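Q: I have six molecules that I believe assemble together. Could you output structure tokens for the complex as a whole instead of separate predictions?
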Amino acid sequence: MTGIADPTRGQPPRTRLDEFEDYRDRMNSRIGDIDHLGIKRFFALDSAAYREGALPSSTKELLGLVASAVLRCNDCIDYHLGQCVDAGFSDEELIDALNVALVVGGSIVIPHFRHAVETVDLLRARRAAGDAGELAAQES
Amino acid sequence: MTGIADPTRGQPPRTRLDEFEDYRDRMNSRIGDIDHLGIKRFFALDSAAYREGALPSSTKELLGLVASAVLRCNDCIDYHLGQCVDAGFSDEELIDALNVALVVGGSIVIPHFRHAVETVDLLRARRAAGDAGELAAQES
Amino acid sequence: MTGIADPTRGQPPRTRLDEFEDYRDRMNSRIGDIDHLGIKRFFALDSAAYREGALPSSTKELLGLVASAVLRCNDCIDYHLGQCVDAGFSDEELIDALNVALVVGGSIVIPHFRHAVETVDLLRARRAAGDAGELAAQES
Amino acid sequence: MTGIADPTRGQPPRTRLDEFEDYRDRMNSRIGDIDHLGIKRFFALDSAAYREGALPSSTKELLGLVASAVLRCNDCIDYHLGQCVDAGFSDEELIDALNVALVVGGSIVIPHFRHAVETVDLLRARRAAGDAGELAAQES
Amino acid sequence: MTGIADPTRGQPPRTRLDEFEDYRDRMNSRIGDIDHLGIKRFFALDSAAYREGALPSSTKELLGLVASAVLRCNDCIDYHLGQCVDAGFSDEELIDALNVALVVGGSIVIPHFRHAVETVDLLRARRAAGDAGELAAQES
Amino acid sequence: MTGIADPTRGQPPRTRLDEFEDYRDRMNSRIGDIDHLGIKRFFALDSAAYREGALPSSTKELLGLVASAVLRCNDCIDYHLGQCVDAGFSDEELIDALNVALVVGGSIVIPHFRHAVETVDLLRARRAAGDAGELAAQES
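A: Yes, here they are, computed for all six components at once.
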């Protein structure tokens, strides 16, 4: 591997979470090109709902996570889990929130609970790989 | 009103919230008599889900409120709003949480948002009446 | 009460179940007048789904009850509970079926579980009153 | 009744639809006082969604009606039925739209179909009474 | 390419929409072999709901699309989008209909909105490829 | 078969059902490691709901199947279909139960009905392959 840069070297293999995020980014960009005021405003309103307000942003991401879980939307769960991990919630706190979703929404939520637990693991692995990568970059 | 005790004197008129709570208490008592282990355990699990854990109890009541709102259950909204008001959330915080429910769940949630706002008003009026009643009792 | 017929004599007071059944009958009659082939066929298909087939009719009424409970429709729950009671299911069997609905559908089903338990009580009371009425008629 | 104006004279008795509309107006006014930008924008976005656009406003009201029916929200059904009647749809067209909702959403929609048919009848009766009232006013 | 027929020559690569349509055709054929009168009638009723009636067929396909979107069923969205494109609706009209679904159903519909926009693009690309193929066939 | 053991020899190719079951087993094992009493109890309650009680276990699996179908959860449908096939229900009985789900839940259930029919075919093929494998083992 002498002298040739390999952009994927040392990177973890791509996961379903990476695929989903790429798809979401590509489609959100496509949707951004749509000339419809209602659509534009809806997306702006959606982003604004989780910003700091009477409640802290982190609490609202947790609300978004539980709402997504009881409504059983894996893509929405993945999005809000990413935000919740970024906001600093521990695994124990995320599980405690998802437990509320399980009890409110019932066993029909179990497949989405499995998905959510896997996503948390993927997010933690990504972060660990990122930290290791940064460390390796600093050392080299 | 000389000498005759009137138990309803000075009390606010009964509201739909009072009716609902009486009905819920009566039926929960009736359900408590049912000899089915699964039912008993489910109700125990439901209560336990909102107790202090990795997340504070108050946050979990807020999660229960938003889950109830997006799943569009007025009885559940009323129950969790009562718990949230007891936990000390302000009107501004409750509205900020319900705004997440509106955005996630859409305009189909609006009738339940109306219901929730009315319930908050009823809960605040009850508390104000309770405070006034206590004050009157102290003064007499 | 000599000589004057009182059609409500000895009858239990009207309940929310009586009101619902009258409303349903009145509206089904109104809907029967609608000249739309799709509507007519849908109602016929709905009735046919619970008739004796590869599965006995009683099992299919129980399926209809649990489907109605997890989809959280009180009117549908009341209808299928009436059919299930007519089919001879005991209270223990109905509760065991509703327990499946609670576990699958979660605590958001609890208000409908309360409603269902009350409906079973109303149906049993109606039957008891009917038996008492028949007995009184035989004795007089 | 000589010489004293009776504002309710000749008017049809108040219906559940009148009650609902009063409640909605009162609560929408209450909600209008809430100082939360997200809530304000959501209500504005909701109104805007049914205005003339690439599709005519009337078609979008019909879409709102069917969406409300399959999501099983009586208040939303009543609102959109009012708009659809104002937009000039005939009973036959409204039933044809509701038939799509029945087929897509299944028998669990039937109680809401009953409600919708009753609402159409109430709206037509109100209009007939209004026409009769105008005629009487012109003749007197 | 002398003399050897290549059936895939000049054809666009297979998409998820092609895969879905093949699967649906295969399974519908499998279901057609099932000897259950209720199933047969339900499928017939489903087809009939979108035929010309008091409302034009095209309007009913649009109703089916919005019902599918708020109920969050990608397969149903894809089916009705295909019908809507065949019925001649423009991209602007489809987006305007999907905007109603977004507002009624909330941000939980966003992943299905992304899916729908991608499906419209796939349907337009297929049509463009078909036109190009026909043109090439006419010219050769 | 000269000396080299081939564990996959004579086995049917892996299906989406095999993949799902592996994933479910892996994630259930992962979830079993989570130290949260509510989660543990919820999973225990879910298992217990289908055990012999006032109703036979097989009837409750059928209730679970129809509840899963009307709530439109393919993973839950697959799980309960497996249990129902193990409990001895015939294809005709399963279709008759799924017909109730179709009528109650509407055409939005059709994609899940397709999925369910395919799963029944996969389960029957697996059983046939298992029987053939056992027969071959006995004969060799």
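A: One point stands out. Residues 110-139 of chain F form the longest helix (30 residues).
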